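This section describes the prediction task in plain terms. A model, or a person checking by hand, is given the sequence of a single protein chain and must write out its three-dimensional structure as a string of tokens. No templates, partner chains or ligands are provided. The sample shown here is typical of the held-out split.
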Amino acid sequence: MPATPRQLIAGNWKMNGLRRSLAELNAVAAGYDAKLRRACDFVICPPTTLVYLAASAALGTGIGIGAQDCHIEASGAFTGEISAEMLADCGATCVIVGHSERRSYFAETDGDVKTKAQAALRAGLVPIICIGETNSDRESGRTLAVLKRQLLGSVPVSESGALVIAYEPVWAIGTGEVASPEDAQEVCGAIRGRLSAIPGDGEAAGVRILYGGSVKADNIASIMTQPDIDGALVGGASLDAGEFARICRYRELAVGA
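The expected answer:
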């Protein structure tokens, strides 16, 4: 049987951060001690302008640096785009693809997301594939149907053991709303079951499934106790080193409560 996936806490800075923001990364690294390294993996995904500097700053800390998007081609006449190979060359180890903001603002389709995930794998990066339903999907009872479609359309065949799935309900991103632990578990359990049905995949139990959507220090512990949730994709809270540190150390804080 596959081993239980190692927990992962990933911070998505979105379009925020200048060079001085690396002080937040340094503060997080200072708290990523040996005990915490044994417990889970940390990844910070800054804007592209900071990937190289962040990767350099993170050397020796155990913290991974990721990116927030990539182009499907390795190189070429695509002015303004950044390839997965370029990100890997800057020191990135993973890349977010298919975030709801990319799907919504830039009209990315499931097919686009799959192609970007394949590009990431080609470059040796771990793709963090985001899926999630809108509030109208939720209210009409279509959550699982929408997620099934996104998974089948966005996940490269035979590659699921090499990637991460982030379930981010669109209605919870940046709104302060958060799925109940039970609802998040129901959906993440269904996602793991659906991964098993993707042709050529036999490693669904080992895929890390993250929950994202208004994750904060005061709700992370109840989310992380769920059996099919292997970590969190944290948005705005990851920009605050103190808050992000509390999220990352949720086990110790829960014990001390």
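For orientation: The chain has twelve helices and eight strands.
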